[in-house]
Amino acid sequence: MGARRTHRLGLAAVIASIVTALLGAGLAPAPPAGGAGGRARGVPTAPSGTAVASAAPATADIPRLTDDRGRTLTLRGWNVEDKTHHGSEALSAITERHFADLRANGFNFARLLVFWDDLEPQRGQYSESYLRKIRRILDWAHKHRVHVVIDAHQDVFGPAFGHRGIPKWATRTDGLPFTPHPDDWFSEYFEPAVQRAFTHLYEDADLRRAQERVWRLLADRFGTHPAVLGYDLINEPMGELREGEDLATAARRIEATHLTAMYNRLADAIRTRDRSNWLFVEPTPIVGEGVPTGLGRVRDQRVVYAPHFYNTAMEAGADYDPADGWIETYENAVTAYPREQRVPVVVGEWGPLNSGLPHMRRFHDDALASFARYSSGWAAYVWCYGGGYCALDREGRFRTNKERTATPYAPAVAGTVRTDTHDPASGTYRLTYRSTHRPGTTVLSLPPSTTGWRIELSGRTAWADARNVPPGRARQVRVWAAGGAEVEVRVRYRAP
After folding, report:
1. Which residues, listed in sequence order, are joined to residue 231 by a DSSP beta bridge?
2. pLDDT single digits (tens) 163-204
3. What pTM value is reported for the model?
4. What does the alpha-carbon distance between residue 43 and residue 60 come to, in Å, rounded to a whole number?
5. CA distance to 68, 186, 215, per residue, from 277 (Å)
6. Helices marked H in 289-374 — which ranges?
């Protein structure tokens, strides 16, 4: 996400133009099956008072993330960041406690925000101190068995506009104006100077080379680190609108031309140093409005599509409306690209600003059910201790409804997954799979529970290293089965 200093109100101001453009250009997302349309981030496309029903899109043909043993992976975790400190104090807000607490609550994934402006504050001068701090954080993650994706983060391009990301020396505006919007930060993306800076980043040969060098450096230093799963090549990329061009058309053009070319360049650069880790690629944030991406093919065998999942109304402080169809509309739009390109999906950011509103319990459950239909996992925003978007309060307790994210799941399955569902009402988790012919280890992750957990396995060929987990602590349970066996696992709350 962006700077997170205020609500994302700027995007709401341009949503009407998106919807108008989608309808006018024939680019509207396919209406959910069985429904009368959807609503893109709180903007109705069905008559007032019309209930919008939806069935999930067909997502069986979206591949799953796998590990080096061929097991099906699921990532559950949070973003970890320090946007406040710079220079010698950079990353100082991130401590080992972050990763210890992630693991203690059953999570196995962190999206770590790093900033080019701290890594290369002067052209060609890389900060060894910053690299050492990244390594220290990765060491903590490995100690606590947390996978990490290194995210090249930018908010409103970078420090030239009062944010973080791309260094000032790499910011070119051609003298175009920039007016800050301190209460409406996202609208700063539409300032002429910011948009022109993105164009230069995408098109200027020397800036392209500088960005490639940064990624070669990161891949060279951290590609073999055991905590590193992959690289998110740029956070929430944007671009420049042409005169007379609506936002939806501009987003698809930027994705099809600038972003596709950039991702292929950066993939080539990384592969000179690291042949094995995953490359996470993002569309523009406009995909959150139900706009299918225009992103083209990234020519690499280990690509993950990593969209973000934010609702404009909720970003502005509104409660979730279960009847408005936004989640279904988003799901239909966001699954088109991974089906076409045959790449896994990991949702890189999601989470409401105010999780304590009346319908936010339902929002978390609906969002998690949606992700389970098409993704290999997610990183919520953000694992910190305090207010705002923080998952935890200052004492380390989940804030209201954030605990809904801590559910049983299977981080690794040695087989082909048939069913992977969690019923929040009963607390029951169900996994069915066909085990690989060469037997491997399936792993269940169970978060702390006040009652503990009971594990049930089907058939004689499956066995586990625990059938009961006592209250109060997270636990990983390992399951084995004979090759080619059909396995069913059920995890339930233990009876008192």
Report:
1. 150, 279
2. 999 999 999 999 999 999 998 899 999 999 999 999 999 999
3. 0.91
4. 30
5. 10, 32, 13
6. 312-315, 326-334, 336-341, 360-374
